[in-house]
Design goal:
The complex is a heterodimer of chains A (288) and B (277).
Chain A (H helix, E strand, L loop, with lengths): L12 H26 L3 H21 L3 H19 L4 H30 L3 H8 L9 H18 L1 H9 L1 H6 L4 H22 L5 H15 L3 H25 L12 H28 L1
Helix pairs in contact in A: 1-6, 1-9, 1-10, 1-11, 2-3, 2-4, 2-5, 2-9, 2-10, 3-4, 3-9, 6-9, 9-10, 10-11, 10-12, 11-12
Chain B lengths: L3 H26 L3 H21 L3 H19 L5 H22 L4 H9 L7 H20 L1 H9 L1 H6 L4 H23 L4 H15 L3 H26 L3 H27 L7 H5 L1
Helix pairs in contact in B: 1-6, 1-9, 1-10, 1-11, 2-3, 2-4, 2-9, 2-10, 3-4, 3-9, 5-9, 6-9, 10-11, 10-12, 11-12
Classes of the chains: A mainly alpha (288), B mainly alpha (277).
Chain lengths: 288, 277
């Protein structure tokens, strides 16, 4: 087992923190992601992740915990996207892009001010690519505090969200307040990606949101099992990624470790490619 | 502001604005905002790879932009396009993170690639930027009518014998080339602001496609010129002004369209007749 679990993996405190926080984030992203993919909001999810960069860089300026900046800006951006409220997908993507562009412009400014103040650009790299092994023990309760509301939103609105994802008109006829449900879903996405931003970094959190959910929707047939499968795939990819990153401290070229975000993304991407033929075969079986 | 060391900045930024205005019009028309966003951002990873290997950054950018465009085209044949785009993007970014971890001295260079460093453009870099730009414009010119028709009425385009799959790939390649070329100037995270803000505004102002392209170029030029001037005066990053400028363009376009729409009860839209005439 020595070749798989390099000595010290199970006794290392940073690894424990990474496993717990990474696991929670992946779980929440998997659950929220199923709806993100079904509703065609992958772009909104990606944009919200990047916009939380703006919040993260602002919180560096204000010297508060980045998590508050991440989540606060995410929720604010979700509200703005909903307010522009274009009905068709093309227009919605456009509105998403515009909000994202303006938000990143602000991020550039905040990061510039950060670097002016601390005369290092290290902060921007930490915000963008995450630093799972350097998260303190104290942030675990805070992370849980953001995971619970996101899961609650999805849990309470599971049926109405599902219905309005399949057909907005049908949902409206059944008395679902489609617009409100949509906003709640965006807020849940924002909370989920700001969590993931802490673990795999703001940019790569898209992977945890979209990847496991897309795989799960390919290989399962009911919404409930898709949600559970997505969460399981996300957690598995994250934990395996942490393990590989820990092992990679002995790898070339620098013996400095490969980035954990690379491993997680690569695992998810490969799993997605593998799931393609499985999904096709399943459809063929169902059809006859 | 017009000192000799600023000349390169003005020239390269103007070229970038023209390309972004032209290519962006079709990005908006085809609803490809996510792709236009993902390709430059993923291409940034190529720059990191190129600096690791010690080759020209522009080559790394171009390779990754093309690979990303083709990958998105290939994967989205079998499923949702937004999912394919997202996964290709994160895979490229994951590689970027890996490349960055292998290099030692990176922070400020990465910051400028992400958010743009218009003053960093050297005279040697202008020629390749201009050549790639001309190639993009020529390609758009050749494909102008099929692109327009297939964006507005895919069925009728298919009936006329236009091969939609190949057209889509060709368009993605153009976006990829345009992205890799504009990246060193305005930065990976903000190119798409320039590619969708001004064209979206132009589209809501006129229904004539040629006029809309012209207007979109003018608005893009205005955005970058104001951005450079403001960045020079304040010393703030140019990306901030480009990003906010793109948003302002879009907002103005929406307001004018809304005012006009409430007066005439008809939102301006580019019609198929205009495309086929």
């Amino acid at each position: 087992m020595r070749w798989l679990f390099y000595p010290g993996f199970f006794s290392s405190s940073p690894v424990h923190v990474a496993l717990v926080i990474g696991g929670i984030s992946a779980l929440v992203c998997g659950v929220v992601g199923t709806f993100t993919v079904q509703r065609g909001q992958s772009y909104a999810g990606h944009a919200l992740a990047d916009l939380s960069v703006t919040g993260g860089s602002a919180s560096f300026l204000a010297s508060i915990s980045p998590l508050w900046g991440f989540a606060g800006m995410g929720v604010l951006a979700a509200g703005t996207m909903d307010m522009i409220g274009v009905r068709n997908q093309r227009g919605r993507d456009l509105a998403t892009g515009i909000v994202r562009g303006a938000g990143l412009g602000l991020a550039a400014l905040f990061l510039y001010w950060d670097t002016q103040r601390s005369s290092t650009t290290g902060a921007s790299i930490t915000i963008l690519f995450g630093s799972m092994f350097t998260i303190g023990n104290g942030s675990i309760p805070l992370v849980a505090a953001f995971a619970v509301p996101a899961l609650l939103i999805i849990g309470l609105l599971f049926r109405p969200l599902l219905l309005s994802s399949v057909s907005a008109d049908l949902a409206a006829a059944r008395g679902v307040r489609v617009r409100l449900a949509g906003l709640a879903c965006l807020v849940a996405i924002a909370l989920a990606v700001s969590l993931a931003a802490m673990t795999v970094g703001a940019i790569l959190s898209t992977a945890l949101l979209v990847g496991p959910a897309a795989i799960a929707l390919k290989v399962t047939s009911t919404p409930g099992s898709a949600t559970i499968t997505a969460a399981a795939i996300g957690v598995a990819a994250t934990w395996l990624g942490v393990l590989l990153a820990y092992d990679s401290f002995t790898w070339p070229p620098s013996h400095d470790g490969w980035p954990v975000s690379f491993f997680i993304v690569a695992l998810i991407f490969v799993a997605f490619l593998v799931a393609q033929p499985i999904g096709r075969r399943r459809i063929r079986q169902v059809e006859g | 502001m017009f000192a000799p060391f600023m000349v390169n900045a003005w020239i390269s930024a103007s070229i970038v604005a023209v390309i972004a205005g032209v290519v962006g019009f079709f990005v908006v028309l085809r609803g490809a905002a996510f792709v236009a966003d993902a390709v430059p951002q993923g291409a940034f990873a190529g720059a990191a790879g190129a600096s690791l290997l010690g080759i020209n950054t522009l080559i790394g950018l171009a390779v990754f932009a093309l690979a990303g465009s083709l990958g998105i085209g290939w994967l989205s044949r079998r499923g949702r396009r937004d999912v394919a785009t997202a996964l290709i993007l994160v895979m490229m970014l994951g590689l970027g993170a890996l490349f960055l971890s292998f290099t030692v001295e990176y922070s400020s260079e990465i910051f400028s690639l992400l958010f743009g460093e218009v003053l960093g453009v050297s005279t040697n870099e202008i020629l390749p930027i201009a050549l790639l730009g001309i190639a993009c414009i020529l390609a758009i010119g050749v494909l102008y009518r099929p692109l327009l028709l297939s964006s507005l009425a895919p069925e009728s385009a298919a009936a006329r014998g236009i091969r939609l799959g190949w057209l889509e790939v060709a368009f993605l390649v153009i976006v990829g080339v345009a992205a890799s070329m504009t990246l060193p100037v305005v930065g990976a995270l903000l190119i798409f602001s320039l590619m969708i803000g001004p064209p979206a505004a132009a589209r809501s102002l006129t229904s004539n496609p040629a006029l809309a392209i012209g207007l979109s170029v003018v608005l893009a030029l205005a955005t970058v010129w104001i951005a450079i001037a403001a960045a020079f005066e304040t010393n703030w990053p140019i990306g901030f002004f480009v990003g906010v400028g793109g948003g302002v363009c879009y907002a103005i376009g929406r307001v004018i369209a809304a005012v006009r729409g409430s007066r005439t009860r008809r939102a301006p839209a580019i019609t198929i007749a205009a495309a086929a005439e």
